[in-house]
Input
Amino acid sequence: MGTYEMSAEERDWLETYDITEFDRPSVAADMAVFSIMETAGRETPDRKNYRKDPEKCLKLLLIRRGSFPFKNRWALPGGFCRRGESTQETAMRELQAETGVRDAYLRPFAIFSEAGRDPRGWIISHAFLALINGECYRVHEGSDAWEARWFRVDLKKEENDRAIAADCAGITNTYTLYLSDAEDSSVMLTAVIREARRFRNYHETVRYEIVDADGLAFDHASVILCAFLDLRRQAEAGGTIVFDLMPELFTLSELQKAYETVLGRPLLTANFRRKIAPLVTETQEAAAGAGHRPARLFRRNLDAFYC
Output
């Protein structure tokens, strides 16, 4: 923060100011950590076929809480802000503690402050979207977690109602969030969240109501949904965000599959490669371990990322 010179009048005013006259919330940072990883850690029939790339999917990091409230339920990694710490610094500290990652993509996407979201009291959460190459890091449990696992993420959307008038509109959707652990088929979480979008004079407000949390703690079902929708919107807009789910070197096919995984739909290869061409630089290296003709490896075009 820049230097600010207070006047004598302002210093006198501050001496009489009592901040305890106002209720103050606790502030936390929660992280939705996504990665594109192999569907299962164990060998599958596809992995026995050396000519076929392993199937990959979008996964989310969750921790199983080892203390109250919501003991034994699954939650996003996160923690409370320490004195003198920004929420960004809190998120970076907690991410490093859970994954060992220091340089992940980390961006705030929403603030959750609804009354009653935490039984401990008035707690405001600054939610962050984090993207990492999860296959390069080993997650480990924090002080309030029994275990940490990667869950496959799938989403189903159903439109319930749509009413449009001259100066207002209302759209209600129901999202079903499926979180499955490929290593343990007995662990399957299914959350239902209702989205109410209201427009007045073309300006939108959105509210989320958790219909069924099914094993998820706090309001994290809504946080996860908002994080996933934010990630998908940025990928849909042709943004570079998906690159943060990739290793340093990748084939164009791997990059296209990553975009398709986030978007939940296939892309035309010719169109994708034409649009992505300015963002990548071809290297002299080729993919190793393939049974077919090795594909050329690419990396980010730094001139396009730092413009």
In short: The first strand starts at residue 26 and ends at 38. The helical segments are 8-16, 45-48, 87-99, 220-236, 252-263, 269-276, 302-305. The CA atoms of residues 25 and 122 lie 5 Å apart.
